[in-house]
Amino acid sequence: QVQLVESGGGLVQAGGSLRLSCAASGSIFSINAMGWFRQALGKQRELVATITSGDSTNYADSVKGRFTISRDNAKNTVYLHMNSLKPEDTAIYYCNADRVVVATNPWYEYTYWGQGTQVTVSS
Fold this sequence. Notes:
Elements: E1 3-7, E2 10-13, E3 18-25, E4 28-39, E5 46-52, E6 57-59, E7 67-72, E8 77-82, E9 91-102, E10 105-113, E11 117-122
Parallel strand pairs: 2-11
Antiparallel strand pairs: 1-3, 3-8, 4-5, 4-9, 5-6, 7-8, 9-10, 9-11
């Protein structure tokens, strides 16, 4: 069983910064990609940023230049540094681990989600 534990959400004023962290734990052999998605009230979940084990990154156009995703492979942890936050960034942010190989079943790749952390940006 693999668990993703997120931290770092909260309330911040527009223009401020936050850092989200997500640590994956369990019988993990490898994780191909980790990332962040968000879901605002009444909207569908959308991709924010992803990073592969080789540090290849992908960002939503709405966060390019403001958010930075990074990863510590040794700790199975992914970070999202969010700068110049806007009220439209308000959402629940979910951590994602994709193409996860676990020691108990190395012939299959799993996808896992965290519980989500609230980010609220006030104007």
